[in-house]
Specification:
Length: about 400
């Protein structure tokens, strides 16, 4: 099991699965509540022999990598290690990957970890390869699943672990009025804390902000309405010029993905990205919405890696949009001017309506039960003179 987006991913060995092997590898994503995200997925595509010993590693955007052992000699000689990438919905990305290049003897007990930049690394045990009974080997992969370099040999004593950055004090939820996020990008949280005990800078690291999870998407109103961004203060603390992001005039990174239309916002960080600069960057993250009928709630994940192998825990913020409806009636008021109604609704069951007859408001508030967007439209036109109401 591994943390994965706003929840976790689980992989396991399943026996007797219809249409499968003697044993197969399966995976499933879950939300923090325990609810399933997407459907159960059979990871392996080869349907002969037995598969075993799975491990999984997840990312902030919900994508994940599963590794396992093929026991049917698919690599040409006894046991071999395989990997499969998955997107945030659990669908396979590309095909199975044979991890070990050396196939003599048996390769087994794989473990996987994700890296900044979208890549991952797999380590495993290999019998007889280093001249002893079993040695520890590894292989790096890039974000597309291609191998980078060859197998490397090592032992647990030579592995150096980086202390992960800590991202703290983020608001668990924020609320914005619909008119505000339609008109201008709004700061998500202007007061956060970022620290890293063993990294003077975040060279080679990334800031990744993502809409989570894909399971929230609705076919009638997909999350393409969501716009993630960075506040440009020009010569102030954080500036944005083209793809370059600067802190107090010094470039600290470049934008790899701009966060538009529900895409991830990704900033590749440079050696000039000291913790204080990366913290200011996170405090400058913004949210806007391009729809005049926005969905009421979405989750976003914020995660930063330091370029030295450490990645912060993904922090999830709920963004709530308070819907505002403005309706103009065609009917005339007693003074001969058009009536204008502004409706502000947090709860669709009860809405507050302001009525303006002409230039002078005569009636300021009326509360109606069970009012929806459709219901609000159905009350128009309004022909009663409010001056005659008790």
């Amino acid at each position: 099991m591994a943390a994965c987006g706003a929840g976790h991913a689980v992989s396991w060995r399943s026996t007797g699965k219809p249409g499968g092997n003697a044993s197969d590898i399966c995976s499933q994503r879950f939300a923090n509540s325990g609810a399933r995200v997407g459907t159960e997925t059979r990871v392996n595509t080869k349907l002969s022999g037995s598969q075993s010993d799975p491990d999984v590693a997840g990312r902030a955007d919900g994508s994940h990598v599963v590794v396992w052992v093929d026991q049917a000699g698919a690599d040409g000689n006894l046991y071999g290690v395989y990997a499969q990438r998955h997107d945030s919905a659990g669908a396979r990305l590309g095909g199975e990957i044979l991890v070990n290049s050396t196939t003599a003897g048996s390769q087994y007990e794989p473990r996987v970890a994700v890296l900044s930049g979208g890549g991952f690394v797999v380590i495993w045990r290999s019998d007889g390869q280093d001249g002893s009974s079993a040695g520890v080997y590894g292989q790096h992969f890039d974000a597309s699943g291609a191998k980078t370099g060859g197998e490397f040999w090592g032992t647990p004593g030579t592995i150096t672990r980086s202390v992960a950055p800590e991202l703290l004090n983020l608001n668990a939820s924020v609320s914005f009025g619909e008119n505000l996020v339609n008109a201008q990008a709004q700061l998500i949280d202007s007061s956060v804390t970022l620290s890293d005990a063993d990294s003077a800078n975040f060279a080679g690291g990334q800031l990744v902000v993502a809409i989570l999870p894909s399971g929230q998407n609705q076919t009638d109103q997909p999350f393409v309405q969501d716009q993630l961004g960075i506040r440009d203060q020009g010569s102030g603390q954080i500036g944005v010029s083209g793809q370059s992001v600067s802190y107090e005039g010094t470039v600290i990174g470049s934008i790899a993905s701009n966060g538009a239309n529900s895409a991830q916002l990704i900033v590749d960080l440079s050696a000039s990205a000291m913790p204080v600069a990366a913290e200011a960057l996170i405090e400058s993250l913004t949210y806007a919405n391009s729809s005049n009928e926005p969905l009421a709630t979405r989750l976003i994940s914020i995660q930063v890696s330091d370029g030295a192998g450490g990645t912060s825990e993904a922090r999830v913020v709920e963004i709530d949009i308070e819907q505002t409806l403005s309706l103009s009636g065609a009917s005339s008021s007693p003074e001969g001017s058009a009536s204008v109604l502004s409706i502000i609704s947090r709860d669709p069951a009860v809405a507050s309506i302001d009525v303006n007859w002409g230039a002078v408001p005569r009636w300021r508030s009326l509360r109606l039960p069970s009012l929806s967007r459709q219901g609000a439209r159905s009350v128009m036109p309004l022909s009663t003179d409010p001056r005659r109401q008790a």
